[in-house]
Design a protein that fits this description.
single chain, mainly alpha, 3-stranded antiparallel beta sheet, 8 helices, 47% helix, 10% strand, binds manganese (III) ion
């Protein structure tokens, strides 16, 4: 797995059928093998002619977009963001009824910062449903462990200088149209049952 140029299409950490019936294998094939793969290829194409940038990780590139050559800033923002967002999204999902829970530390932070798990999910849902057009909703933490909800448009990422994204919800129609058509709220409710809180907790504790 390359952590620098040329970036690889990261394999799914489960089979294409694992997330059924919440997300069908057809959705995962299109979403991972076609959509995500296009972001990887376009990111590599943008960086190809800039060997001085080949030593940087994806996070380093995304944190320094304004310092990149102007001609590739938009391509790195859109495609690098696309790779980052999809790696996070796919890595924090698991099978139906996996029955994972936030760790003791993460649960304590959730109760401190939102009141309860249910209130946190409610705020995340508002962000996901309220995002007009295409984009993402996230649970993020700062370095001190304070949690918050945020949302971005298109393939933008949260400000990685200030926060570590713990999980994200893809609200582009390609993420849910085959399974839910235009019913974004139904997709959100079902997707939340697939969140791998073991992985989210690990990211939180290693922030
Ligand atoms: Mn997507």
């Amino acid at each position: 797995m390359n952590t620098v140029y040329p970036f690889d299409l990261k394999e799914l950490p489960y089979s294409y059928e694992t997330l059924e019936p919440v997300l069908g294998s057809e959705t995962l094939h299109f979403h991972h093998d076609k959509h995500m793969n296009t972001y990887v290829n376009n990111l590599n194409a943008a960086l190809e002619s800039y060997p001085e940038l080949h030593k940087y990780s994806l996070c380093e590139l995304l944190k320094n977009i304004e310092n990149l050559p102007q001609s590739i800033q938009t391509a790195v923002r859109n495609n690098g963001g696309g790779v980052y967002n999809h790696e996070l999204y796919f890595s924090t999902l698991t099978r139906v009824n996996a029955n994972t829970h936030p760790s003791v530390l993460l649960q304590a932070a959730i109760e401190r910062d939102f009141g309860s798990y249910e209130e946190m999910i409610g705020k995340l849902k508002q962000a996901a449903i309220g995002r007009f057009g295409s984009g993402w909703a996230y649970i993020v933490t700062d370095q001190e462990g304070n949690l918050s909800i945020c949302s971005t448009q298109n393939q933008d990422v949260p400000n990685l200088e200030n926060v570590v994204p713990l999980m994200t919800v893809d609200v582009w129609e390609h993420a849910y149209y085959l399974d839910y058509q235009n019913r974004r709220p139904d997709y959100f409710d079902a997707l939340i049952t697939l969140i791998n809180w073991d992985i989210v907790s690990k990211t939180y504790e290693e922030r």
